[in-house]
Design goal:
Neuraminidase, about 425 residues, globular, 28 strands, mainly beta
Amino acid sequence: MSRRIASILCVLFAYASMVWAVGIAKSNLQPEWVCGQGTHGGDHVIEGLQTRDGGYIAVGITAKTERSRGDLLVVKTDAKGKLQWKRIIGQPKTQEEGRCILEVADGYILGGALSAKRSSQPGLVKLDQNGKTVWTKSYPAKRYGAIRGIDLTPDGGIIATGFTNNQSREVGFIAEEAKGLLLKTDAAGTLLWKCELPVSQGAKVHTVGKTGFAICTTIWAETKGTEHQDACLLKTDAAGKVLWNKTYGHTGNDQCFDFDPTPDGGFILAGHTTSHSAGWDAWLVRVDKAGTMLWEKTFGEPIGGDPKWTYDECYCVKVLPDGGFALACGSGIEPTGKRLKPDPRNTWGAWVLRTDPAGKLLWHYFYHKPKQGHNAAEWLTPCRDGGLLLFLDSDTEGTPREGNVGMIKLPALPPRLPKK
């Protein structure tokens, strides 16, 4: 089938207001439920997880208002997506953002950017199970900073990564002119130590047994006089001293935003890349425990289109119980000045991919409402019933105006979907 015919068919299907669900084998995959929660100011979700009570919690940012530049947002739902409570944390005329979250026995730990002397600084907040603030800690440094990733340590403390000394108070995709940060606290958020990383920021962090920590990020590199971006993985000892760092990429821009430990002691990294096609593709990289690359995979254009203008972006990867991987992505045409009207891909869709342990694509699901508004999956969490919960920026779900925190619950599925 020619690209022209394929494009025409996509337009016809999309403008019939269909929600696309596609797989390697054609399937009738349908979500168990879809919902939207948030505020009337416009929201952006960053992370989320399934809670011990079977519900879900998401953390992110409210849009700028007259009151503030941005506030930290937390949304808690029950197992069916019904709102239980939400919290907005922020000070007038300042910038607060929620960037990461984890659950502890008596509540939740949030990391992000908090106000300290009217400056956005790396900070942690503990909420109890009902969303009430237990404590708030900030770790001031030069200019602006934020925590972007957190994990628990074997002694019950918290390890956090992010950046300081940034010129902008907003937390962008990549803090390119900042100073990378790694810090450890006790369970109450009291600082035990902090150190500067040899990169401009830490994106996510994981505890590696009792031997130390691993941090992923994106760095600038140069190949034959041409600057480009590479993914980077750092390993430190238990005191934060860098033992090694490895880079992954080619001559395009290769960006890393998330990673997860694999059962063999290695890691799976995820982001997006321009090194393999004319445009951005979702990117998956498997490395061993020493950081040596084992393989890489790219994925793009879930409903076709010109790769030059289609952005396939990935911000989350999770290891599944069978050793395979799930990725949360968004796909749409960018930049806006190059939109090919009336192509339905001008409106972003939320995209989740499921692979086997070798990175082979088993199935994928695309949630797309081109006549109603944008959707893009920002995060996902494996559920205890074997399904997946997608967290997405959504213009179409929920009653508040503008962007909402969208949630899509996918059912438990076999690794490969049966053919129709």
